[in-house]
From TrEMBL:
Residue ranges of domain Enoyl reductase (ER) in the record: 10-322
Transmembrane stretches, start-end: none
SMART domains in UniProt: PKS_ER (SM00829)
Single Gene Ontology MF annotation: oxidoreductase activity
Identification of the protein by name: NADPH:quinone oxidoreductase family protein
Organism: Pigmentiphaga aceris
């Protein structure tokens, strides 16, 4: 079977498509025919040795797939060949087939396409954990979403609206902001053209947002944290900008504000029941049409490197998906 292979640490341009033979199944594993694989920011980082996980070379990246079960190990009871599933395979997803842990593989929600299923759980799960669980967002509060047209950003807009919050979306271009509006944003800020602090003041009558959802980091973090409302919660989701901000701690004191970390993968491992409750809420909102996952582009397996390049170079909106 064909798979994308990272043979040496480096940019996505160095990835190759090769014929690979998968090993026999070990206990607790399942073999899946990949119908769609979601592209996530860690995929861009992991091939460059810039991610917290550094697998042995060579390896196949890709950690979120949807597909059909081909084979299960003899100790796996909750899955059967032919089942449509989503799986967090950790690695190996950018391939025609992947061997995944059975306990990270679950029946696909009914009514979803493989593309949507592969684009849903990680991004919406992260944004739910951040807004609903870590920030305890309430109806009537105001949320500022940075990087709002990206994967977790668009999901955050929709989830905040589903909760009944008001959403200010911040992104770098008019096109990206138009997409945020389509997905429910109430107010828009182009943070490449406008002064972020002034724009936040204008859109909140000087009060500031109750919650800031930040998957970007870098230069936007300090003005956003300075603008937060009394008792605000600042969600540290990611650093797509590449720079981890160093924000003065006195800003937290001045607003009685909280700096709140968000680590979805570890949340799922440590608190599986809370994660399941979150997924149930999300699937409910999805069936009511309140969430509309946006797959902006699909790529063939051979085009995987281009998908990672587009994500790295800030050209993606919503989610990118590989369809082997
Ligand atoms: N904590 C967790 O559990 C968790 C889970 C999932 C993802 N994440 C992290 O969240 C971040 C966003 O993930 P995502 O999947 O939403 O990515 P994404 O779709 O690429 O969105 C990131 C957004 O960041 C903005 N950005 C600003 N500077 C950038 C730069 N130099 N390079 C790339 N993007 C830049 C872009 O919007 P503009 O062009 O509009 O600025 C882009 O839309 C990543 O750091 C990811 O690792 C964390």
């Amino acid at each position: 079977m064909q798979a994308i292979v990272c043979k040496a640490w480096g940019p996505p341009e160095d990835l190759v498509l090769e014929s690979v033979v998968l090993p026999a199944l070990q206990p607790g594993q399942v073999r899946i025919r990949v119908r769609a694989a979601g592209v996530n920011f860690p995929d861009v980082l992991i091939v460059q040795k810039k991610y917290q996980q550094q697998p042995a070379l060579p390896f196949t990246p890709g950690n979120e797939v949807a597909g059909e079960v081909i084979e299960v190990a003899s100790d796996v009871v909750h899955l059967r060949p032919g089942d449509a599933v989503v799986s967090f395979c950790n690695l190996g997803g950018f391939a025609e087939e992947v061997i995944a842990p059975a306990d990270a593989t679950h029946a696909m929600a009914p009514g979803l396409s493989f593309e949507t299923a592969a684009a849903f759980t990680l991004t919406y799960g992260t944004s739910w954990h951040a807004l609903c669980d870590r920030a305890a967002l309430k109806a009537g509060e105001t949320v500022l979403v940075l990087g709002a047209s990206g994967g977790v950003g668009l999901a955050a807009i929709e989830i905040a609206r589903a909760v009944g919050a008001r959403v200010i979306a911040a992104a770098s271009s008019a096109d990206k902001l138009a997409l945020c509006r389509e997905h429910g944003a109430d107010a828009l800020i182009n943070y490449e053209e406008e002064d972020l602090r002034e724009a936040i003041k204008r859109h909140t009558n000087g009060r500031g947002p109750d919650v800031v959802f930040d998957p970007v980091g870098g230069k936007y973090a300090e003005p956003a944290f300075r603008s937060i409302a009394w008792r605000g919660r600042y969600l540290v989701v990611g650093f797509a900008n590449g720079q981890i901000p160093a924000v003065p701690w006195n800003l937290a004191l001045l607003k009685s504000a909280s700096l709140v970390g968000v680590f979805w993968g570890e949340f799922v491992r440590r608190e599986p029941l809370a994660h399941e409750a979150g997924m149930a809420s999300l699937l409910g909102w999805l069936s009511e049409g309140r969430l509309r996952p946006h797959v902006s582009r699909t790529y063939t397996l051979a085009e995987t490197a281009q998908a990672l390049i587009d994500l790295r170079d800030r050209r993606a909106t919503g989610k990118l998906v590989i369809v082997p």
